[in-house]
């Protein structure tokens, strides 16, 4: 192998490694940024759920119109966050969790609507002076619906934590994969460089040794000695 060719191969290998590492870094950065965005969405979901839990407890205790309006606002905000997250590019591992969160979100809205209807029914029964037994039935229904709504809300919070944990695992996996690719690339470059350098050194030193030996023989008086350097490098030419 010619010295010029060896140096060219080293240069090509180095440039290839730099380009490959740049592409890997760019791709990894995009993946991590996407996971960070989804992690922020999971945190936003948890925030809305916790606020919704507080308002649900307050509304179930006082049944004030202001609390009802706040609940509707919080519920609508959570719905918008879920809709935005579904419209984004979603990792397959996130999709099932997000679908479960959406299902519980819809159940929570259904429970609240039924709770509203139950409260309106109790007020009507009270206005009509209906028997206390009928009114007590609405109270029992109210407690049941409130408990079911809170359970749905807690499931949403638990699934939001699960979503965040999945995202963190994916980020760690991507980083580990990137580190492995980087390490293997560097090791591969070192091995390739060592091989090419060794071939280059041999291509230079072996012919030089032959020349030195030939010069020594000629120097001792054997003027008919012919130096025969068999190499494909520039020295052989």
From TrEMBL:
<dbReference type="Pfam" id="PF00672">
    <property type="entry name" value="HAMP"/>
</dbReference>
<feature type="transmembrane region" description="Helical">
    <location>
        <begin position="181"/>
        <end position="198"/>
    </location>
</feature>
<dbReference type="GO" id="GO:0016020">
    <property type="term" value="C:membrane"/>
</dbReference>
<keyword id="KW-0812">Transmembrane</keyword>
<keyword id="KW-0808">Transferase</keyword>
<dbReference type="InterPro" id="IPR050398">
    <property type="entry name" value="HssS/ArlS-like"/>
</dbReference>
<dbReference type="InterPro" id="IPR003660">
    <property type="entry name" value="HAMP_dom"/>
</dbReference>
<keyword id="KW-1133">Transmembrane helix</keyword>
<dbReference type="GO" id="GO:0004673">
    <property type="term" value="F:protein histidine kinase activity"/>
</dbReference>
<keyword id="KW-0597">Phosphoprotein</keyword>
<protein>
    <recommendedName>
        <fullName>histidine kinase</fullName>
        <ecNumber>2.7.13.3</ecNumber>
    </recommendedName>
</protein>
<dbReference type="GO" id="GO:0007165">
    <property type="term" value="P:signal transduction"/>
</dbReference>
<keyword id="KW-0418">Kinase</keyword>
<keyword id="KW-0472">Membrane</keyword>
<feature type="domain" description="HAMP">
    <location>
        <begin position="202"/>
        <end position="237"/>
    </location>
</feature>
């Amino acid at each position: 192998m010619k010295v010029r060719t060896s140096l060219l191969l080293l240069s090509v290998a180095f440039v290839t490694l730099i380009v490959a590492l740049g592409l890997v870094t760019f791709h990894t950065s995009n993946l991590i940024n996407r996971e960070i965005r989804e992690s922020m969405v999971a945190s936003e979901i948890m925030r809305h759920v916790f606020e919704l839990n507080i308002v649900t407890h307050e509304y179930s205790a006082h049944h004030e119109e202001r609390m009802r309006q706040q609940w509707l606002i919080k519920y609508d905000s959570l719905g918008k966050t879920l809709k935005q997250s579904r419209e984004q590019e979603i990792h397959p591992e996130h999709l099932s969790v997000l679908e479960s969160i959406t299902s519980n979100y819809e159940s929570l809205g259904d429970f609240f609507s039924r709770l509203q209807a139950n409260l309106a029914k109790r007020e009507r029964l009270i206005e009509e002076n209906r028997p206390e037994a009928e009114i007590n039935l609405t109270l029992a229904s109210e407690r049941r619906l409130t408990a079911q709504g809170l359970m749905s809300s807690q499931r949403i919070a638990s699934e939001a934590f699960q979503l965040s944990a999945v995202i963190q695992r994916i980020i760690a996996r991507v980083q580990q994969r990137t580190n492995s690719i980087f390490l293997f690339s560097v090791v591969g470059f070192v091995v390739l460089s060592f091989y090419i350098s060794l071939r280059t050194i041999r291509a230079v030193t072996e012919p030089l040794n032959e020349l030195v030996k030939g010069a020594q023989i000629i120097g001792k008086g054997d003027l008919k000695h012919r130096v025969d350097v068999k190499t494909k490098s520039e020295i052989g030419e």
